[in-house]
Amino acid sequence: MTLIAIVMGTLAAGIGSVWLAALLSFGVLARYTQHMLSLAAGALLATAFMHLLPEAFESQAGADDLFMTLLIGLVFFFLLDKAELWHHGHEHHHDSGSSGHHSGHDHSSHADHDANGHSHAATPVKSGSWAVLTGDSVHCFGDGILIASAFMADVRLGVIASLAVLAHEVPHHMGDLMVLRSGSSNKQMALVKVSLAGAVTALGGLAGFWLVEQLQDYLPYFLVVASSSFVYVALADLIPQLQKRLTARETATQVAWLFAGIALVTVVSGLAHGH
User: Fold this and answer.
1) Is residue 59 helix, strand or coil?
2) pLDDT at 259
3) How far is Cα 20 from Cα 96, in angstroms, rounded to an integer?
4) Residue 201 domain-assigned?
5) Is residue 103 situated within a structural domain?
6) Number of domains the chain contains
7) Contact call for residues 195 and 15 (beta carbons, < 8 A)
8) Which domain holds residue 78?
C-alpha cells in the first residue's frame, strides 16, 4: 500500500508540475516569450541558490566535498553542452554537404544567401537542453527520495510532501520548458522531454522505498549536481540571450521579469516549507 502511494505521489508531483507549468508557459504567458526567458533565468538561479544549495549545505556533508561536486558539475555540463553543439554542428555539416550534391547550388547563390544574413554557418545552435534535462532528472530523482521518505514516515506527511514538491517545481519547470522552447518551435517535444525528466521522480521514489537508508547520505550531492545544471543553464544559455542593446524601459522590464522569477520561486518555496 505504501509503495502504491509513493508511486502515485511521485508521478503526481513530477509530471503534474510539468503540465501545470506548460499550461502557464504555453497558454497564459505564451505571448511573452522574451520576458519568459528572463523569468526562467531568475527561477533557475533562485532554485539553485535559495532552495537546493542551502538544503545541501544544511546536511552533514562537508562543505569542501559539496563545493568540489558543484565545480565538477559545472565543468560536466559545460562539456555536455560542447558535445551537444558538436553533435548538431556535425549533423548540419553532413546535411548541408548532402544537399550541396543534390541541389546544384552555384557559388553566387550561396553568396546571395549569405549576404541576406541566412547562411548556414551563422545559424545559431541552441544549447542547454541536455544540461537542463540532466539536471532536472537528477533533481527529480532527489525529490522522489524525499517523497518516499515522507510516505514511509506517515502517509499524510507523504501527501503534503508530494503537494509541496508539485508546487515548488512549477516555477523551475517553466524555466526548463522555456530553455527547450527557445531552441525549438516544437512545444509538444519540449513538453514530452520535460515530462520524462519529471517522471524520474517516480524512479527516485522507488529507489527511496528500497534504499532510503543507504541513499540518504548521498542526497546533498544530488542537490548540488542539480544546482550546478541550473546555474550553468541560466548563466551560459539564458542570460547571454538577454544581453542585447535595449532601451532603458525595455532593460527595466527585463530586469523586473528576472526578479519576478526569483520572487516566484522564493514565495512558492516558502509556502511549501511552511506546510
Assistant:
1) coil
2) 93
3) 39
4) yes
5) no
6) 1
7) yes
8) 2-87+126-274
Pairs from 67-72 (Cβ < 8 Å, separation ≥ 24)? 69/221, 69/224, 69/225, 69/228, 70/224, 70/227, 70/228, 72/228
Nearest partner of 151 among 213, 220, 208, judged by Cα? 208
Task: Tell me the angle at which helices 187-215 and 129-153 cross, rounded to the nearest 10 degrees.
Answer: 50
Give the three-class secondary structure for 271: helix
Residue 187 lies in a domain: yes
- Look up the pTM and report it: 0.60
Residues present in the chain in total: 275
Q: What cell numbers appear for 202 in the block? A: 517516480
pLDDT recorded at residue 122: 37
DSSP character at residue 191: H
- Which pLDDT score is estimated for 224? 86
Residue 54 falls within a domain, yes or no?
yes
Task: Check residue 116 and give its pLDDT.
Answer: 40
Residues of the chain predicted below pLDDT 50? 87-88, 91-92, 95, 99, 101-126
